[in-house]
Design brief:
Layout: H1 3-11, H2 21-34, H3 39-50, H4 54-64, H5 68-87, H6 98-109, H7 111-121
Length: about 130
Protein backbone atom coordinates (compact mmCIF):
# COMPACT_ATOMS: atom_id res chain seq x y z
CA UNK A 1 0.00 0.00 0.00
CA UNK A 2 1.47 3.35 -0.96
CA UNK A 3 1.73 6.34 1.37
CA UNK A 4 -1.19 8.21 -0.23
CA UNK A 5 -3.59 5.30 0.20
CA UNK A 6 -2.39 4.74 3.76
CA UNK A 7 -2.86 8.41 4.63
CA UNK A 8 -6.36 8.41 3.17
CA UNK A 9 -7.23 5.21 4.98
CA UNK A 10 -5.93 6.50 8.31
CA UNK A 11 -7.86 9.75 7.73
CA UNK A 12 -11.01 7.78 8.53
CA UNK A 13 -9.91 7.66 12.15
CA UNK A 14 -10.17 11.44 12.38
CA UNK A 15 -13.81 11.63 11.28
CA UNK A 16 -16.14 11.98 14.24
CA UNK A 17 -18.89 9.39 14.44
CA UNK A 18 -21.35 12.25 14.77
CA UNK A 19 -20.82 13.06 11.07
CA UNK A 20 -23.81 12.46 8.87
CA UNK A 21 -24.17 8.67 8.44
CA UNK A 22 -24.43 8.93 4.65
CA UNK A 23 -21.12 10.78 4.55
CA UNK A 24 -19.43 7.99 6.48
CA UNK A 25 -21.07 5.35 4.29
CA UNK A 26 -20.09 7.11 1.06
CA UNK A 27 -16.53 7.68 2.26
CA UNK A 28 -16.24 4.02 3.25
CA UNK A 29 -17.40 2.98 -0.21
CA UNK A 30 -14.75 5.21 -1.81
CA UNK A 31 -12.04 3.68 0.38
CA UNK A 32 -13.27 0.21 -0.54
CA UNK A 33 -12.75 1.12 -4.21
CA UNK A 34 -9.10 2.11 -3.54
CA UNK A 35 -8.33 -1.37 -2.28
CA UNK A 36 -10.53 -3.37 -4.66
CA UNK A 37 -7.57 -4.96 -6.44
CA UNK A 38 -5.83 -6.11 -3.26
CA UNK A 39 -7.03 -9.71 -2.74
CA UNK A 40 -5.86 -10.02 0.86
CA UNK A 41 -7.57 -6.78 1.80
CA UNK A 42 -10.71 -7.70 -0.08
CA UNK A 43 -10.90 -11.10 1.62
CA UNK A 44 -10.34 -9.65 5.09
CA UNK A 45 -12.78 -6.82 4.38
CA UNK A 46 -15.52 -9.25 3.38
CA UNK A 47 -14.91 -11.57 6.33
CA UNK A 48 -15.05 -8.72 8.81
CA UNK A 49 -17.98 -6.82 7.31
CA UNK A 50 -20.03 -10.01 6.94
CA UNK A 51 -19.22 -11.38 10.41
CA UNK A 52 -22.48 -11.57 12.40
CA UNK A 53 -22.54 -10.20 15.95
CA UNK A 54 -26.27 -10.18 16.82
CA UNK A 55 -25.86 -10.96 20.54
CA UNK A 56 -23.27 -8.23 20.87
CA UNK A 57 -25.51 -5.68 19.12
CA UNK A 58 -28.52 -6.63 21.24
CA UNK A 59 -26.52 -6.18 24.44
CA UNK A 60 -24.99 -2.93 23.20
CA UNK A 61 -28.40 -1.45 22.32
CA UNK A 62 -29.75 -2.44 25.74
CA UNK A 63 -26.76 -1.30 27.81
CA UNK A 64 -26.24 2.01 26.01
CA UNK A 65 -29.85 2.75 24.98
CA UNK A 66 -28.88 2.95 21.30
CA UNK A 67 -31.36 2.74 18.43
CA UNK A 68 -31.20 -0.07 15.86
CA UNK A 69 -30.09 2.39 13.19
CA UNK A 70 -27.28 3.89 15.27
CA UNK A 71 -26.12 0.46 16.46
CA UNK A 72 -25.73 -0.63 12.83
CA UNK A 73 -23.70 2.50 12.05
CA UNK A 74 -21.46 1.82 15.06
CA UNK A 75 -21.11 -1.82 14.01
CA UNK A 76 -19.96 -0.77 10.54
CA UNK A 77 -17.46 1.70 11.99
CA UNK A 78 -16.11 -0.87 14.47
CA UNK A 79 -15.65 -3.36 11.66
CA UNK A 80 -13.88 -0.73 9.55
CA UNK A 81 -11.61 -0.08 12.53
CA UNK A 82 -10.90 -3.81 12.69
CA UNK A 83 -9.98 -3.68 9.00
CA UNK A 84 -7.48 -0.94 9.81
CA UNK A 85 -6.05 -3.06 12.63
CA UNK A 86 -5.73 -6.05 10.30
CA UNK A 87 -4.18 -3.94 7.56
CA UNK A 88 -1.63 -2.41 9.94
CA UNK A 89 -1.00 -5.11 12.56
CA UNK A 90 2.28 -3.60 13.75
CA UNK A 91 0.85 -0.14 14.39
CA UNK A 92 -1.04 1.06 17.41
CA UNK A 93 -4.23 2.68 16.14
CA UNK A 94 -6.23 4.78 18.59
CA UNK A 95 -9.97 4.30 18.70
CA UNK A 96 -11.62 7.31 17.09
CA UNK A 97 -15.01 7.23 18.80
CA UNK A 98 -16.16 6.60 22.37
CA UNK A 99 -19.42 5.15 21.06
CA UNK A 100 -17.69 2.68 18.77
CA UNK A 101 -15.27 1.86 21.58
CA UNK A 102 -18.26 1.01 23.79
CA UNK A 103 -19.41 -1.47 21.15
CA UNK A 104 -15.93 -3.01 21.13
CA UNK A 105 -16.08 -3.30 24.93
CA UNK A 106 -19.42 -5.05 24.59
CA UNK A 107 -17.97 -7.46 22.01
CA UNK A 108 -15.10 -8.26 24.38
CA UNK A 109 -17.62 -9.18 27.11
CA UNK A 110 -18.50 -12.17 24.93
CA UNK A 111 -14.98 -13.51 25.35
CA UNK A 112 -15.41 -16.77 23.45
CA UNK A 113 -17.14 -15.04 20.53
CA UNK A 114 -14.51 -12.30 20.43
CA UNK A 115 -11.65 -14.78 20.61
CA UNK A 116 -13.20 -16.84 17.80
CA UNK A 117 -13.66 -13.71 15.68
CA UNK A 118 -10.05 -12.64 16.22
CA UNK A 119 -8.57 -16.01 15.35
CA UNK A 120 -10.81 -16.51 12.30
CA UNK A 121 -10.10 -13.04 10.93
CA UNK A 122 -6.59 -12.11 12.06
CA UNK A 123 -5.06 -15.40 13.17
CA UNK A 124 -4.26 -13.86 16.54
CA UNK A 125 -6.05 -12.20 19.45
CA UNK A 126 -6.54 -8.48 18.84
CA UNK A 127 -6.00 -6.86 22.22
CA UNK A 128 -7.83 -3.74 23.27
CA UNK A 129 -5.49 -1.16 24.76
CA UNK A 130 -6.65 2.12 26.29
CA UNK A 131 -5.94 5.21 24.24
CA UNK A 132 -3.56 7.82 25.54
Amino acid sequence: MNAVNKALFLFILTIPISCHPNFLHDLGDKIDIIFKNNRDFKSMHSKIMDYPIPRVLARYKKDYNVSDELALIHEKELKRYFILCGTYPNESLDMFSPEVDNLWHTFILYTKDYEKFCHEIFGYFLHHCPTK
